[in-house]
């Protein structure tokens, strides 16, 4: 089978942690099938914005190999935020089609296209599929509401779902928001993402710090890092030995950097400097070591479509305390951790203080076993069965 993946969220030589949840699927399926990737990036003119994070887009390779996977990074004009998305969409589509045609010239025709995020990749993939006369599958990783309140985006996204062979949501929680917008549809399926069990696994020799809790992810309002810090402000008044390690950052996204600055300022405002440590972004193997060093993971999100980081923690034998924010509710239960209400710093603080002494009592191999259904190997099997269905329908 020859599969073309289209996703602007895919790692590159500048943003190495972007779209790892797409790369994991691509790498696993690429073990036994011919795959290639088109991952567009914004165009940055020469000498413009030199020294800024946006200017770093010029450093991204136009073409590279990720292991044995051929990846093209075509450029498209892009404005700030969503200001010019109506005008960007045609240019984005042209960039995808041009890169895909180049891959076809070099490697031959594809059997199927798999796009990640209905907008803009699904729309571009739909136009590409029409030209190639092959089926397209779309996976969404973001809630449709309130995003689809934008009439322009909603119209194009709805057209893409009507056209595609399957529309996949990474969780039932996300799928429900798609149904709220377009109603039930026979093409809608749930297909979760996974984790790398070669990296995230139990280390029986690791000795976690019983007072260290861990946060891993983007530093952004939707991730609830501000809620976690306010919970820490309450916690340290009576349990000053508890420490929080924050792993992650803005991941190279300009609009996230403001949130990161605000979160760092909040640490100072709440006088948490001695209790909170920012360690920045790290490769996955280092993140696995952070899991081994910590008593538990905390996921304080306001909204979470899936929550792969929770799987990674479980795979390392660490329990998870998460908010009821969507995806984690499909992963975490009393056997793997604890769920608490979102948007409630005091409830989160109470839960952390009460749960932390029990964190070390969870059997590591049992936690790992709970995550095994989501290894990339298992997730790839599920996706390949969907690909087979789609191709056999043609």
SSE sequence, one letter per element: EHEEEEEHEHEHEHEEHEHEHEHEEHHH
Number of strands: 16
- How many helical stretches? 12
> What is the first-to-last residue Cα distance?
14 Å
Percentage of residues in strands: 15-25%
Low-confidence stretches: none
Q: What does the largest sheet look like?
A: 8 strands, mixed
Percent helix: 40-55%
Radius of gyration (CA) equals: 21 Å
Mean pLDDT: 93
Structure description:
The chain is of the alpha/beta class. β9, α5 and β10 (188-190) form a beta-alpha-beta unit. Helix content is 41%, strand content 18%. The protein has an eight-stranded mixed β-sheet, sandwiched between helices. A six-stranded parallel β-sheet has the order 13-12-11-14-15-16, with helices on both faces. It has twelve helices and 16 strands. It has helices at 20-29, 85-107, 118-132, 151-163, 172-182, 225-238, 254-269, 284-293, 308-315, 345-359, 364-371, 376-393; strands spanning 2-6, 34-38, 41-42, 63-66, 69-72, 75-76, 112-116, 136-140, 166-169, 188-190, 209-216, 243-247, 276-280, 294-299, 320-323, 337-340. α9 packs antiparallel against α11 (364-371). It is globular and about 65 Å long.
Task: Note the topology.
Blueprint: E1 2-6, H1 20-29, E2 34-38, E3 41-42, E4 63-66, E5 69-72, E6 75-76, H2 85-107, E7 112-116, H3 118-132, E8 136-140, H4 151-163, E9 166-169, H5 172-182, E10 188-190, E11 209-216, H6 225-238, E12 243-247, H7 254-269, E13 276-280, H8 284-293, E14 294-299, H9 308-315, E15 320-323, E16 337-340, H10 345-359, H11 364-371, H12 376-393
Parallel strand pairs: 1-2, 1-7, 2-5, 3-6, 7-8, 8-9, 9-10, 11-12, 11-14, 12-13, 14-15, 15-16
Antiparallel strand pairs: 4-5
């Amino acid at each position: 089978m020859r599969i073309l993946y289209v996703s602007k969220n895919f790692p590159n030589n500048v943003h190495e942690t972007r779209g790892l949840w797409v790369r994991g699927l691509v790498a696993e399926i690429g073990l036994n099938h011919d795959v290639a990737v088109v991952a567009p990036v914004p165009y940055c003119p020469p000498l413009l914005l030199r020294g800024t994070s946006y200017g770093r887009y010029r450093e991204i390779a136009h073409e590279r190999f990720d292991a044995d996977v051929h990846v093209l990074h075509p450029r498209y004009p892009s404005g700030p935020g969503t200001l010019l998305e109506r005008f960007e969409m045609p240019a984005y589509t042209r960039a995808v089609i041009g890169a895909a045609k180049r891959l076809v010239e070099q490697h031959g025709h594809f059997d199927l296209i798999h796009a990640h995020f209905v907008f803009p990749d699904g729309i571009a993939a739909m136009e590409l599929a029409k030209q190639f006369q092959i089926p397209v599958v779309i996976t969404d990783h973001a809630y449709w509401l309130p995003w689809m309140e934008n009439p322009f985006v909603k119209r194009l996204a709805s057209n893409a779902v009507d056209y595609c062979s399957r529309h996949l949501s990474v969780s039932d929680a996300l799928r429900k928001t798609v149904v709220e917008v377009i109603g039930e549809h026979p093409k809608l399926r749930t297909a979760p993402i996974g984790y790398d069990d070669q990296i995230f696994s139990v280390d029986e020799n690791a000795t976690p710090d019983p007072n260290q809790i861990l946060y891993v992810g983007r530093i952004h309002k939707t991730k609830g890092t501000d809620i976690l810090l306010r919970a820490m402000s309450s916690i340290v008044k009576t349990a000053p030995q508890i420490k929080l390690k924050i792993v992650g950052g803005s991941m190279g996204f300009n609009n996230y950097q403001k949130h990161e600055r605000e979160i760092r300022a909040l640490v100072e405002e709440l006088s948490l400097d001695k209790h909170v440590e920012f360690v920045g972004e790290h490769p996955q193997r280092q993140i696995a070591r952070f899991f081994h060093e910590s008593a538990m993971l905390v996921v304080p999100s306001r909204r979470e479509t899936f929550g792969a980081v929770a799987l990674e923690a479980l795979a390392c034998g660490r329990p998870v305390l998460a908010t009821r924010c969507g995806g984690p509710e499909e992963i975490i239960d009393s056997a793997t951790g604890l769920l608490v209400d979102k948007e409630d710093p005091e409830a989160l603080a109470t839960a952390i203080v009460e749960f932390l002494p029990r964190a070390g009592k969870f059997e590591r191999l049992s936690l790992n076993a709970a995550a095994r259904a989501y290894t990339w190997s298992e997730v790839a099997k599920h996706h390949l069965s969907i690909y087979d269905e789609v191709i056999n329908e043609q």
